# Entry
Amino acid sequence: MDSYESALAMVLERFGEPLVPRSYPIPDLEPGALLVQVTAAGICGSDLDITAGRDPRIRLPLIPGHEGVGRVLALGGDKADMFGNPLQPGDRIVWHRGITCGRCYYCAVRRQASLCLHRQVYGISLPCAEPPYLNGCYTQVLYVRPESEIIRLPEQADDAALVAATCSGATAAHGIELADVQMGDTVVVLGPGPLGIYTAAFAMERGATQVLMLGTRRGVERMKLAASFGCITINADEISLDQRREMVMDMTHGLGADVVFDAAGNPRSVAEAMELAARGGTVALPGVAVPQGSTPVSMYEQVAVKNLRLQGVWVSDARHMYQAVQLTLSDRYPFEQMVTHRFPLQQANEALETLRRREGMKIVLQPQEEG
# Structure
C-alpha cells in the first residue's frame, strides 16, 4: 500500500469559483476510524448545487465528494465491516456517506436513520478547516469516521461502477421501499440520470410489469442506457405533456401509473409526475435534493380526488447502500456502462464542467492517478 505524509485534495473555498488544490497533513486516527486511499470518487449531480452554494448544509472551506470507493491504508485499532469481517490494510471498501448518531428519536425509536437530527455527510456538511481535514472524497486520502458503516468489497469489483451505488443507488433503494412498488405495477421514472437508472432497476427487481423512462433530447445517450436496462423510453421533447399522459393511459388500460418517481427534481417534473399517476397511486420525490421554491398543486383535483400519495424521499440509510451495492455487484444490469468519463483528481473542475454541460452520465475522479 502507498504511504502518505500529506494528502492532496480539491477544495471549495468560495461558492461559484473553481476548486483549489490544497495539501493537508495526514491526521491521527481515533479508535475505530480508518484512513482510506480513495480509488474512485463520483461527481454527483448534487455536487453542482453544492459548489454553487444552493445546498444550505454547506460550510466552507469544503472538500466536496460524498461518493467514494477505496482501499484501507490504516486503522485506529481493530475494525470490522457491517458483516463482522475484520478489516486490514489493503482491503477494498465502500462506506455509507451519511454519519448518524444512533441515539436521537429518529435513529433509536423510529429506526429511520436518514432523518437523524445530527446527521453529517462526507463532502457536504463536514468542512475541512480543522482536523481531521480530509472529510470529502475529492482527495487522495479520506478520514472515515468510527460511526461509518462499511462494506468490504470483492477484489474484482469495479470501483468506478460502484461509486453511484453509494448515493444515487442508495437513494433509489430508499425510494422504492417508501413507495412500496409491487409485482405487476406500472412505474414511470422521470429523469434518466444515475438516480433514475437505479430506480428503474430496483423497480424491475420488485416485479414491475413495465417501467417507462422519460427524458429529453439532452439525454439521448442516457435514454439509450435506460433502454438497455429494459425500460420503455419516451422523449419528452418529441411529444406534448397531454400526449405523454395519453401514452401512459393507453399502456395502463386507462388507469395511469401505479408509481411515478421524480428523479429529475424540478418543479416542472413534479407537476408532470402528478399528472401521470393513477387514482390511488404514489408520486415519490427522490430527485428533490435542494430548495427549489414552490410547486403549484391542485389539492382537490390532483391529490384528494385521486387519493394520491405524495412521498418525500430524503437520502438513505446504510441498508439502502447495501442493497444498491449488492444489485451493482450482481451483474444483472450493465451499471458499468453508466461510467462515461474518468479524470485525475486535479482535473476536478473539468469534471464538474463536463457534467454541467451534460456531456457525461457518470463522471468519476481517480485520485490514485496523481502519482
Notes: The first helix runs from residue 45 to 52.
